[in-house]
Design brief:
Elements lengths: L2 H9 L12 H26 L1 H9 L3 E6 L6 E2 L5 E13 L3 H5 L1 H14 L10 E2 L4 E2 L8 H11 L2 H9 L10 H12 L3 H11 L12 H8 L2 H11 L2 H17 L7 E4 L4 H10 L6 E10 L7 H4 L2 E3 L5 H6 L8 E3 L2 H5 L1 H4 L4 E7 L5 E8 L6 E4 L3 H21 L19 E8 L5 E7 L15 H8 L3 H11 L7 E2 L2 E2 L5 H12 L22 H4 L9 H10 L9 E2 L16 H6 L5 E2 L1 H7 L2 H15 L4 H4 L3 H4 L31 H22 L23 H19 L7 H13 L9 H23 L2 H7 L9 H12 L3 E3 L4 E5 L5 E4 L6 E4 L4 H16 L6 H4 L7 E7 L13 E8 L6 E8 L4 H15 L1 H7 L16
Parallel strand pairs: 2-12
Antiparallel strand pairs: 1-10, 2-3, 3-6, 3-7, 4-5, 8-9, 10-11, 12-20, 13-14, 13-25, 15-16, 17-18, 19-22, 20-21, 23-24, 24-25
Helix pairs in contact: 7-8, 18-37, 20-21, 23-26, 23-35, 25-35, 26-33, 29-30, 29-32, 30-31, 30-32
């Protein structure tokens, strides 16, 4: 034995092997480890591998957070009468849970039966219609294609095309060309194919399931396409569509997690009670109480209050960023509802709730109530507004009944009034600028827009996107336009009646480059258009007071000077055709008249003479002479001096408005250069000129971006711009640039190259030169001032401007900022902003009191003396007032279109201390005497108490001036 190793063995004691015991402590530790490992594994599985599935399950669990609509603020008239408010609505909603999903078709079948039995309808704007199957989008025609593409993309049709055309690619990977291919493929998918695809996508064949045994149904499910065929053959398409509407709504809402969908809105309380009673038998169905916008007077002041609507697809992202629920929230689309959206909208609330297995609320766990929007008080008097609207409707109906009746060609009733379908009336407080009434006809029932499905496609299109094909043909026939022998210079004599109808129809309602019919001559009555603030019309004779102001203030005529009506006004131009109506109708004369009599009789000859004297005083043909009327018109808000940045080209009203301009030198230059340029285009295309220049080969210099090459288009643009510039220039004509452009155009255009001789080019230049000279002569002509002096020519103003003009005339010369909003209050009625005492003055006219008094007396003669043009309307009216009738030609050949002159009227009352001013315009009304009837009805409402005090038996024009609330 080795001593060293023996020693080691002796020194190192051997360990005794012991058997380990499995204690309870060990078991607990192992168990805990296993439990924690399982939990961690489950968490990883839930949060990493299957996050989307369990997120959806969590969303459909027992605890939910729902968003509640906020009531919009009210809109009141000046006396606190409600024009827009909210009422408690009952909505039928469906919540998808495992149970409601399983019983969907049986549940919805019962729901449809109850709705039908109680006269309720589905709440939907689903654009896929049936019988025949087609798309109908409630959008303007130019948005239809975009809307159809959006519809198909939202329902996955683009993904199907992607898989077929670009297999293996994802949508974000596609370039612009490939995306275009997707869109082109989507465009050719017909509505019938979409309908059939959605039947399959939503398993709508299950509608028939209860008609078959389980075994039969399993067999049928083996061939889905045949099953869809069977469904389409045996179930009415409209019934299939109803199920599709609900399923599609669920699908579209599913992207937002937990969200019940609305099946029917604004249920009658009795219907809501029925569903409350049977909801235990209908999984997923419940009744929701929520505010619904309500307009007690329906159409009243629809152009002021405005309508609301769902958020358009193209703007949903924008509104989502601003905190809107784009699936449920409504926004203001016009009028006050639109302009004050941020004030009226309120703030949505949230409610944390516990729900049962059917998705119904069991209890509230926590709540943040919705905050109502702030409310708005308007300056409008709803009774005055009613009177204005009713009077317009009655007067226009009366005029249409008269229609083409002509008592005698030498009377004032010799025009066709059968198209008197549009009108406006504006009433202003002359001392504050408050707008008391702002009527536009036709109007819209605002309640049509508050609930999906209430505004059907036909009504929508009649308001926003009319079928001009159908309307236009009916218009041509109704107005017997096919009897015309000419339209816009086109000879129709040798055409058959059918050919005439076709030519006239296409002239009135031509197709644009997109194949959409256009209302070229503004014939269709547009209910959504605010005629009171946006229609710019020639004022006619109601402008004559302005001419009188200018003449008196410039001392070219005195208040007592009499001017003799000598028939045609040929003092400066022998070929000028202007004359008084007395001469035009009877070949008579008004005789010697001063300014008051001229206003009373609406004597054109008198105002031509005033205009001529202004022209002469300013320096014949000069800018100053041709601005003589404009500089006074601008003071009264009839246009604005564009050279003065301090001028405000607006009335100040809070809703959208247009702003018409008076004739003045620069506007005349722009207008005439445009007219003569287009006239020159026709001359050159036909090889003619405004004077004899000899024969030359025709040429087309009209720039056409689609037909011309880029180079030729640029040359034509340069040429036409040079021509317009020469027309408006006061310097001697320099045709060198024009000559060079013509030669380059001929050289660069393959069609013209080598085809034109020097003689042709000289003829073209002479034709252009003659048109330039004509334009320059016309621009400087006193005829511009003559036409403007009687409210014709290029003068165009809105009814709102015209009322402001009269208010400024009679209130001492202060042009107030016009306004509709009086104050804004919170939900407790506390005033946040008060505009009632602002009375902002835009400018003062500084016209003398003597001049104003002379004008007022002339206007008073219009309504109170037998010779006055409004005497027949006001002869027995107890409130002394002043006014002026007008008749403004739409176009020289207006009869060819079935159109006639605008009927205009302006007035004020009472005479001594004016309180209100009014303007009335009836499109295609013919004579201002008819519009005066509207003014009288408004006065009767405004001065009602005063009238009845003096005569309790007074007979009012409007038998029922107040309309009942809906």
């Amino acid at each position: 034995m080795n001593n060293k190793e023996d020693y080691k063995e002796l020194k190192t004691p051997k360990k005794k092997k012991q058997k380990k015991k499995f204690t309870r402590y060990t078991a607990v530790v192992i168990t805990m480890c296993l439990i924690f490992a399982t939990i961690v594994g489950k968490l990883i599985y839930l949060q990493v591998f299957n996050v989307e599935v369990y997120r959806e399950k969590a969303n459909n669990g027992r605890h939910k957070v729902i968003s509640n609509s906020a009531p919009r603020g009210n809109i009141y008239d000046t006396d606190g009468e409600i024009l827009a408010t909210n009422k408690q609505g009952f909505s039928l909603i469906f919540t998808e849970t495992s149970e409601s999903k399983e019983n969907f078709f049986l549940t919805i079948k019962e729901v449809f039966a109850v709705l039908e039995e109680n006269g309720e309808v589905l709440s939907e704007n689903f654009p896929l219609k049936v019988d025949p199957i087609r798309f109908e989008f409630n959008v303007a025609e130019e948005w239809e294609e975009w809307s159809e593409l959006r519809f198909k993309k939202d329902r996955g049709f683009d993904d199907a095309v992607l898989k077929e055309k670009f297999k293996g690619k994802n949508m974000p990977d596609l370039n612009d060309e490939e995306l275009k291919v997707i869109e082109e493929e989507l465009k050719i998918i017909e509505a019938e194919e979409v309908f059939r695809t959605l039947i399959k996508k939503y398993s709508l064949y299950n509608i028939m399931k209860d008609k078959f045994s389980n075994e039969e149904w399993k067999k049928l499910l083996e061939d889905k396409e045949s099953l869809i065929d069977l469904l389409l053959e045996s179930v009415p398409h409209e019934e299939i569509r109803k199920y599709m509407v609900v399923k599609d709504n669920i699908q579209m809402q599913s992207y937002k997690g937990y969200r019940p969908i609305i099946i029917a809105n604004d249920l009658k309380i009795e219907t809501a009670y029925i569903f409350e009673q049977i909801q235990a038998e209908l999984p997923g169905i419940s009744i929701l109480k929520q505010p619904i916008r309500y307009y007690p007077y329906g159409e009243l002041a629809s152009n002021i209050v405005g309508y609301i609507g769902k958020i358009d697809e193209q703007y949903k992202g924008l509104y989502e960023e601003r905190g809107y629920d784009v699936h449920e929230d409504y926004i203001g689309r016009s009028g006050i509802e639109n302009e004050y959206e941020n004030i009226l909208r309120g703030t949505r609330g949230e409610e944390s709730i516990e729900v049962n297995k059917d998705g119904r609320k069991v209890k509230t766990l926590g709540e943040r109530p919705a905050t109502p929007g702030e409310s708005i008080y308007l300056t409008i008097d709803h009774k005055l507004q009613m009177a204005a609207e009713e009077a317009l409707d009655q007067t226009m109906a009366y005029m249409r009944d008269l229609g083409k009746y002509k008592a005698d060609k030498k009377t004032l009733d010799d025009v066709d009034k059968s198209n008197a379908t549009r009108g406006a009336a504006v009433v202003i407080d002359v001392k504050t600028g408050d707008v008391l009434a702002l009527a536009s006809r036709p109007g819209i029932d605002l309640n049509l827009f508050t609930v999906p499905g209430r505004l059907d496609s036909a009504t929508y299109k009649s308001i926003f996107s009319p079928d001009l094909e159908e309307f236009g043909m009916a218009y041509v026939m109704e107005h017997e336009l096919y009897k015309n022998e000419e339209i816009n210079g086109k000879d129709l004599k040798d055409l058959t009646e059918e050919e005439r109808i076709d030519v006239i129809f296409n002239e009135l309602f031509p197709e644009n480059k997109n194949g959409i019919r256009e209302d070229r001559y503004d014939i269709y009555p547009k209910a959504a258009f605010n005629y009171s603030t946006k229609s710019r019309v020639p004022p006619g004779s109601i402008f004559k007071m302005l001419t009188a102001v200018a003449g008196l203030e410039e001392s070219v005529v005195s208040p007592t000077e009499k001017i003799y009506d000598a028939g045609p006004y040929t003092k400066r131009y022998k070929d000028f055709k202007g004359a008084s109506w007395m001469y035009n109708l009877y070949r008579g004369s008004h005789g010697n008249q001063d300014v008051q009599d001229a206003i009373r009789d609406s004597n054109n000859y008198y105002f031509f003479e005033v205009a001529d004297r202004l022209y002469e005083k300013g320096g014949e043909g000069s800018k100053e002479s041709l601005d003589m009327l404009g500089k006074y018109a601008w003071k009264y808000g009839l246009g604005a001096n564009m050279e003065n940045p301090a001028s405000k080209a607006k009335t100040g009203i809070e809703i959208d408005e247009a702003f018409g301009q008076v004739y003045y030198y620069d506007s005349g230059k722009r207008y005439h250069s445009k007219v003569y340029t287009w006239s020159l285009y026709d001359h050159l295309i036909n090889g003619t000129a405004s004077i004899w220049v000899g024969e030359y080969k025709p040429i087309n210099i009209v720039p056409d971006e689609e037909k011309d090459s880029e180079e030729v288009y640029a040359i034509k643009k340069e040429l036409t711009s040079a021509i317009k510039e020469e027309m408006m220039s006061v310097k001697d004509a320099d045709l060198s640039v024009i000559d060079e452009s013509i030669r380059v155009l001929i050289e660069k255009n393959e069609e013209y190259r080598g085809q034109y001789t020097d003689k042709d080019i000289e003829g073209i230049k002479r034709a252009i030169s003659s048109s330039i000279n004509d334009a320059r002569t016309e621009i400087k002509s006193a005829v511009n001032l003559y036409n403007a002096s009687i409210g014709q020519g290029i003068n165009q103003f809105t009814p709102l401007q015209l009322a402001n003009y009269i208010a400024t005339l009679v209130n001492g010369g202060y042009r107030y900022k016009l306004h509709l909003v009086e104050k804004i209050v919170d939900s407790e009625g506390n005033v946040i902003e008060d505009f009632g005492n602002e009375n902002i003055i835009f400018n003062e006219t500084n016209v003398s009191k003597e001049t104003v008094e002379v004008i007022k007396k002339g206007m008073q003669k219009v309504t109170s003396t037998p010779a006055g043009t409004a005497y027949s309307t006001f002869k027995n009216f107890p409130i002394k007032n002043g006014g002026k009738t007008g008749s403004a030609t739409y176009q020289a050949n207006q009869d060819e279109y079935g159109r006639t002159a605008y009927s205009t009227y302006v007035g004020f009352a009472p005479y001594e201390e004016p309180e209100i001013a009014i303007s009335v315009v009836i499109v295609d009304g013919g004579h201002g005497g008819y519009s005066a009837r509207v003014a009288k009805a408004v006065y009767e409402e405004y001065f009602k108490e005063q009238i009845l005090e003096s005569n309790s038996e007074y007979e009012f024009m409007l038998k029922k001036p107040e309309t009942e609330k809906e």
